[in-house]
Amino acid sequence: MTKKQEQTASFMVRFNQRIFEENGEPKVQWRGKISHVQDGDEQRFSDFNDALTFMQEKLGVLTEEATKHQTTEEQESIIDKSLSMWKTIKNVGPKVLRDTLKDPKRQFTHLQDEIQDKISTIGDEISEKVQIDQWRNASRSDFNTIQNQIESLSSQIKGLSSKIDSLKKK
Amino acid sequence: MVNFHKQLQELQSFRENAEIRIETLGNFCVWRNEHKIDTKEWGRDKTVQLLQYLVSNRQRNALHKEKIMDGLWEDWNDRDFKVALHGINKTLEPERLARTEAIYILKQGVSYQIDLNKVWIDVEALEKYIIIGNETFVIDKSISKQAYKAALKLYKGTYLPNRIYEDWTSEEREKVQLLVLGAYITLAEILIKENPLESIRLAQHALAIDPTWEDAYRIQMQAYIVKGNRPQAIKTYLKCEVILEKEYGISPLPETKKLLKEIEAIS
Fold first, then answer.
1. In the prediction, which pLDDT does A128 show?
2. For chain A, which has fewer Cβ within 10 Å, the N-terminal or C-terminal residue?
3. Is the pTM above the cut of 0.90?
4. B165, A22: Cβ pair inside 8 Å?
């Protein structure tokens, strides 16, 4: 039987947050480092998916090692099951991170509060706040409206282009 | 008002007078009354592991025996723990009389912890110096400098380097590394005007720990400009750009780019 220690993988993940302004727009950047404790390997990432891939690779090796004495069929089946678990994590992982770290509403509210603080020192008359809670996701009808508008715009552009062509001919 | 000078003196005097001193940074070493304890004196490696585990978890309240064993060993039994604990107590207190309580490893029922009032530990002292450095940063830079310098003097390398593959040491190692990186950068910043060479050296130490630490490059660029070495400042930016591209696929922060522009504008 494989020892418990040989079936354990530990990871240390470091996130380094950088908030800055670029072209007048506030931005946030995450730089990260993930280390696999048992072999000392480490990788830096700016996309969390790379950290998940790193973990997946390390765990893949662990599964492969633990099943190397089994038949190829058994080994493949276990590795498949292990990978299917990872598909779930890979799908959920970034979402969890997004929800925790990049909640757009919360972030927007936070930034807006900061801006409000600054504005209020200049004058109350320009400090009217847009309520983020009144925002909603775009619905199907919104998309339809946008699509119709784009179609109408493109037909207008076509019309204008043909007018320009005929003017050129003259 | 808090007397930070006094706090610094107390930390120094605790180091000089503590009967037991434990060094964990760059190397593991224990001193008993100025006598360096030889590896053989510990007997089994499990004894050393238990002491190191208690050091790593020193700031938690008394640790339950089973939690300690679960964290340390995959197959454990009571006997292992007893032997290891006895090994620590015997080595730290060879003269202790039978049936008297150990004074360095405190016992509360079946929970254990190191007595931090009696045992000096480098990582504990390092953290305390950095706290003083941070607290005095805005009110008195001279104390702040003194505190950061004292902290960095204690940093002789990674935490418990012979246990880097043990997960129970990772948390402490990461914590110490970030504290030290912060101290290098802050001290380097304080010293830019009065001693740019030292700032460059400190930033270099930070980069040896983490070559992608962008603040360190920026400090070096500023320090080179104070020294009047414009080409080296530009070269430092280029190094930063290369490493960030290689490791993260990103470019330096606008703050660093802005500094480069300012340097390029110097005639």
1. 47
2. C
3. no
4. no
